[in-house]
User: Fold this.
Amino acid sequence: MLLKKIVIAEDDDAIAHMVNMALGDAGFLCLRARDGEEALKLVKAHDPDLLVLDVMMPRVDGHEVARRLKADVMWSRTPILMLTALAGVDNEVTGLEAGADVYMPKPFDLREFGARCKALIRAARRERDRNPTTNLPGSRAIDEEIEGALKSGKPTTVIHIDILHWDAYADAIGIARSEDTVKNLGQWLLDAARKASGGGAFIGHIGGSDFIAVLAPSQSDVFIDHAENAFDAHKTTLPGDASALWLVLAITNTEGLNLQTGADELGRRLGKAMKTAKANGKTGHVKFTG
Assistant:
């Protein structure tokens, strides 16, 4: 699991120490900046999950740091929690307009501060790791979802979904129409997951025509049926000649796997199952359990 990094830009040693202790005890790696210039350098060097930013700092103040980061295409999505001793609505508005996502006046409650930091990181990670074609969670979110399933110890089914003969079809219809097809497939799979679970199943998009579903074993058959039926119902509406396209599903579960080695073993099982399914696939939907 990747350790979450936080840059703390605070010139007051006592406050920086207090914040560092609170976040460090919660499992975050904290990097200290004593002025605005150092804060900018640390953000660009370490790509942190969060910047905790004091307003009144030497060299470059917090407002200017926020403005520079939000204006930079590479760092504009870095969430910023701004701390200040300046009270009042006008100061809060100035901080938010400069680019702060959350504005907290000093003094502050450490429990509230920690909760806000975690909430900002969760929200930012959800938005940063989305596939641009489907807006579904991407590879890092998929890894975290599987890691969470392994950590919980609850029986979980993981399904890798792909389309047989996709590459030749995508070459024939072109980039724009193939992306539209993938976007539609993502929506069909999401609808199938919602019908199977009532909203609790996870659908992620690895890329291309590859998707991952993570759900309870009792929901997997219903999900597969809905996914296959949706694909059949819409295949005739797809651009070009889609007659050779079929869903391919590689299915495995977390039974007997632990947190340390489970993700790698799941990947190995799914890879083997998908390879076998595609090799056996001629017509019709292809499923293989590994």
Observations:
- Residues 49 and 122 are 9 Å apart (CA to CA).
- The mean pLDDT is 89.
- DSSP finds ten helices and ten strands in the chain.
- The beta strands are 5-9, 29-33, 50-54, 80-84, 102-105, 157-164, 202-207, 210-215, 246-253, 286-289.
